[in-house]
Amino acid sequence: MTQARPAGQHTVRRHNCALVLAAIADSPGRSRADVAASTGLTKATVSTLVDRLAGGGLITESGRQDRPGPGRRGTSLSLSPRGPHGLGVEIAVDYIATCLAGLTGEVRELRVRRADNRSLSTARVLGRAGKAVREALAEATARGIAVGGVGVAVPGLVEEPTGLLRVAPNLGWHDVDLPAELAARTELPAGPVLVGNEANFAALAQLWTSGPDGARDFVHVSGEIGIGAGIVIGGQLFSGTRGFGGELGHFPVSSRGPRCTCGARGCLETLAGQEAIAAKAGVAGLTELVAALSAGERPARSAVREAAGRLGTALSSVLNLLDVPCVVLGGSYARLHPWLAEPLLAALRARVTGAPWSPVTVTASALGSEAAVRGAASSAVRGIMADPDSFVAS
Amino acid sequence: MTQARPAGQHTVRRHNCALVLAAIADSPGRSRADVAASTGLTKATVSTLVDRLAGGGLITESGRQDRPGPGRRGTSLSLSPRGPHGLGVEIAVDYIATCLAGLTGEVRELRVRRADNRSLSTARVLGRAGKAVREALAEATARGIAVGGVGVAVPGLVEEPTGLLRVAPNLGWHDVDLPAELAARTELPAGPVLVGNEANFAALAQLWTSGPDGARDFVHVSGEIGIGAGIVIGGQLFSGTRGFGGELGHFPVSSRGPRCTCGARGCLETLAGQEAIAAKAGVAGLTELVAALSAGERPARSAVREAAGRLGTALSSVLNLLDVPCVVLGGSYARLHPWLAEPLLAALRARVTGAPWSPVTVTASALGSEAAVRGAASSAVRGIMADPDSFVAS
């Protein structure tokens, strides 16, 4: 490894600060001595860094350690629930959502504002997104909470190195610099603004909330008006060489079918997206569709069965290509799971070549349509956790 | 990292032996002192290990080092072209191939034996494969070459942890333990027998022969009677959670189409495989197809164009999912490249959502149908390079 510049004291402190914070996050209740033992840092260094993190409001130090056995008891360190929060923002086709999440992962506030963003100009939608961000920041201020990072989820292709939204077909957007656009409309907090595809953020939220025993290899399918996939392999998001990976909505499932926003025909989302299913079932939207399904109405059930077949065609190819046996239904698909899962599973079993040796599973995300904005907020939190010193210094 | 047992002297020697050999492979012509400087080992240790590797026939030491400047000249070390070879074996649907490759990567011998393996029993094909291996080993012995490892390429799903061939639909094989079957038919050399999917070995061969400036992110499509994909991302083979990844042949490209060996209808290989194209063109096989294409015959050209469209449907989904912009046409597709590439590229440009920001490319593999067996032989060579001490000791 070559470094362009020698690592100075500041670089070392940034690194060690993150190390100490991670040790406290991993085992809340540890003393300074425990942290020194687990990180290999001296007690004096740990004490300096703990003071710095506590001064910045990231950790709290309380009472005596509650553990059995002999020896001196240290005070118990833990992440502060009032520490810096991550702000998640999601600009979806039919809503704008914001979410504030704390260092310990808890969601403090989540707000969804319905709107048909397709019928509005880009400037208008960005104006609304800016307003949503201002309101969320004001809410945080009113609660005495600092915001240490922002994550923005969008239904489109986001170039990872630049954070530029290249295209969001369902919004009709091209080349939008979201951090700059939002910064022009609201006073963003110091710290990075992470922009990412909503399906990828949703898959990360699923990974992070499923706990240490949760699946580490799965495809999270976000069924909304568009359809996106987030691929998690070995506990890591796989987003391709530039961040464009996981594009599932334009998977060709029919040589005919209606014209898609991408210009092609027979794309998965025109035949198995939330609006396509509702239209086929003869109902107005997702809520009405769920009601019709619950009432056992035939057109609704047959529309979902047909969509399950289309989705099975696309997902079987995904599973064959990636050799991942678990599908997590997210977004509106999570609500359709009781009717969607069985025919989908049948389609997958018929087409996934590795299925006999590792049964395919289809589960519903507990987070549903909230997953993307929660993932965006949690990604911002992880950004703070990875470099707490920058937050303290700012 | 926890080790079950303390690392003994033998473990250290194995590690350092590989380190010294890699240093010599990276820069042939180095002296013992150069190797000591680049590895950080003492000159005494390097000398002991160089003697051991030279004694085992893996390296040669010759003449004076050819470099300018003052200072003592050491002798020049390099991999021995007569060092242990890797033996590659490929059991394909319509041939059995063997390949001997040396430590420096050169192919010493490659032999393809045509046969319609679908019409023969598993035992019969295994008998022929055993015979091919015996002949290749005899050839190596006649040339005074030791074989240090074996790689076996098969057109099916190979479970990575066990090396068990779970299913090869085009051969009609199920649960075949190839190392055991081959060992029962021929005296295999000491050392591991690596079994893998032919498309994965072909992709590795493409990666390893394309040099340091070659593509590091590509999908290698092996078009034979079946169709397989080998996915390379960041210079690493991606083969999924169990090694079953890259299954492309059963990608559904039509809701109708002939019944496939997998049981489904409309699978890519039934519509765009080598036999399907030849049948559509009204010719007997690949050679006749290429002749008809070169002569500008319309049925042949239209058959290839149709296959290109099918392949484009499947590959656009692969590229959208993985965000990889390069397709390498391998196997019989390499020979069809002059006629296949343009309509395929047109189909991909129309469907790959990230194409405007990173143009899709379609190139032909220089290795063609030899790629898989060469990749199997090279994998065996890399096994020797990773643990030369075991070869010396055996």
Describe the structure.
Chains A, B: It comes from Prauserella marina. Chains A, B: It holds the Pfam family ROK. Chains A, B: Residues 17-65 form the HTH marR-type domain. The structure is a homodimer of 394-residue chains. With 394 residues, chain A is of the alpha/beta class. Chain A has three domains: 9-79, Arc Repressor Mutant, subunit A, CATH 1.10.10; 85-201 and 372-393, Nucleotidyltransferase, domain 5; 211-366, ATPase, nucleotide binding domain (Nucleotidyltransferase, domain 5, 2-Layer Sandwich), CATH 3.30.420.40. Helix content of chain A is 43%, strand content 21%. Chain A contains 13 helices and 15 strands. The first copy, chain A, has helices at residues 9-26, 32-39, 43-55, 122-142, 178-185, 198-209, 268-272, 274-281, 286-294, 298-322, 332-351, 371-386, 388-393, and strands spanning 59-64, 75-79, 85-91, 95-101, 107-114, 147-154, 157-158, 165-168, 173-176, 193-197, 218-223, 227-233, 236-238, 326-331, 361-364. In chain A, the strands form four sheets. A five-stranded mixed beta sheet of chain A has the order 5-4-3-6-10, sandwiched between helices. A five-stranded mixed beta sheet of chain A has the order 13-12-11-14-15, with helices on both faces. In chain A, strands 7-8-9 form a three-stranded antiparallel beta sheet, with no helix packed on it. In chain A, helix 8 (274-281) packs antiparallel against helix 10 (298-322). The longest helix of chain A has 25 residues, at 298-322. Chain A is globular, with a radius of gyration of 23 Å. The relative contact order of chain A is 0.13. The mean pLDDT of chain A is 91.
